[in-house]
Amino acid sequence: MTPEFVVNLGSEAIKLALMLSLPLLGIGLIVGLCVAVLQATTQIQEMTLTMIPKIIAVLLVLLFASPWMLEKLSSFTSHLILNIPQMIR
Predict the structure, then answer these.
(1) Rounded-to-integer distance, Cα 22 and Cα 40, Å
(2) Rounded to 5 degrees, what are φ and ψ at 70?
(3) Tens-digit pLDDT profile for residues 34-82
(4) How far is residue 85 from each of residues 1, 28, 31, 80, measured CA to CA in Å?
(5) If you count DSSP H runs as helices and E runs as strands, how many of each does the chain have, helices first?
């Protein structure tokens, strides 16, 4: 296993982790920003008002994006498993 191979494998794993977390974090950011603007305009400073919409939005995105996420993760894992003979040389 060459150092270039290890760096490439690590870089692909980091890219995959970022790609899988982007939809969840992005929708959490957008919903949190909308709730913050709503709180600032109405001056309602309730902590549950910030968390509940974000939790619901992230769960909905997870529900709809989970097939895509599982497909990406399983293809990466199967690629790793299939390349084990090349990795141990």
Answers:
(1) 26
(2) -65, -35
(3) 999 999 999 888 888 889 999 999 999 999 999 999 999 999 999 999 9
(4) 11, 41, 46, 10
(5) 3, 0
Distance CA(49)–CA(40), nearest Å, equals 12
Identity of residue 37: V
In a 3-state reduction of DSSP, which class is residue 3? helix
Hey, what amino acid is at 30? Answer: I
| Per-residue tokens: 79 | 């690629």
Rg of the chain over CA atoms, in angstroms?
19
Give pTM, 2 decimals.
0.80
**How many residues are given for the chain?**
89
* Nearest CA among 36, 41, 42 for reference residue 54: 36
